[in-house]
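From the shared-data thread, chain only:
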Amino acid sequence: MKRVTGTSVRQFSSLSAGQGEDRFAAPRKAWRWNPIAWTNYWRKYEGGVSRLFCAGDFLEAIAEKSWQVEAGGMTVSRAAFFLPGQLERVTGMAYTDDPGRDMRGGITTLQPPTRAYLLTDVTLLDGSLYKRDKRLDMHARMRLSKIARYIPRMRVEDEVEQAAIYSSYDGNEFFGLWLTDDCPNYLLAKEAGVPVTALETASPHMLEYEARLGMTPLRTGGALLHKATLFDDRWGNNPGKHGRLGRVRERLLAGLTVKPHPGVFILRRDSGKRRTMHNEVELAEYLRERWGFSIADVTREDAASILAKCAGARVVAGVEGSHLMHGLMVLEQGASVLTLQPPDRFCGVIKRTSDMEYLNYGFVVGRAEEGGFRADADEVERTLDLFPQSTGFGVPAVRVPVAMRTARAMATMRSHARGKSAAGLTA
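Structure, as tokens:
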């Protein structure tokens, strides 16, 4: 295409004077009873309930006003790189209804503009926004305790004159969408008010990213928002969003030594939603030995270490999932992303962002095994061979003759079968 547990501690000192949140009155403590959630619960939310994701129509109905902040645009999706017979293995899908259509590309899409919606007198309680008889959920209600779900909170602790909501339902569910959607949205929010988000348990990686990006939101379980601006682009990929992602990338790369290198395999292991690739570590070590890849491990390394390994990579590879976004966020245009897909959960989300960022996207669909799946090393290599052989860095592919690769692959796999430890992986 041509997430330390959150508190309502304020951290508004990191931006320079006159920028962003400093233009707006700081939140203040306001211990008050507010029965709106309880009242709406007993009324069974007569006005409706929505998730804060692609919620433009819902917001339009309750907003004082709305306006366009970024123009839309026309895009044509790019074709993915994959071997014959891969799509025939797909038995289940996520975020795509037609893998064949989406992966073959050539789809012309009118990308929606980004719009802002001004709401007044909004109450934020336990991750939901209440406006009159309507509720807008910022994250899944199942994240709350059973008591909190059935006996709603009736007290607020914070009061904000002019707030801006930047986080989304799916961003609070998936780390990757938090990076690619919520973090760029923060750039809009800090110009419209005090950035506010739900009182959530943020992962160490998320806290690191917030520090690198200068994100200083108010995390609160209950707040009165006299004015609140929200944003929606209907999960589109318009030029303005592309520009904001570029600004996020520049901030993440600041201070890193960007040295071109063949690629990085990002290990998922048991992180996130379960999708177990039985030969994940073996394949990562094989690509390190034969293709010169680095290995990053999201279960053992901090974000700084992962970003340092990904910066300058020609290829980012790994099991399909949010963890790959660590790499995608710092890739230069013309680099490539290779996803290893479980056959029962073929997902096209990463391709959407790859297209918007002018990255090559490829995939290998594994073969189902009990408790997970396995990706074929030869198919992985042949798919890597399909990618353009240089990037914006002008880095040539690291190639080993096929016969030599096959022989070495067998030796590597045999060594792992004898119990070679995966501990102590290095770049």
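The chain has a mean pLDDT of 84.
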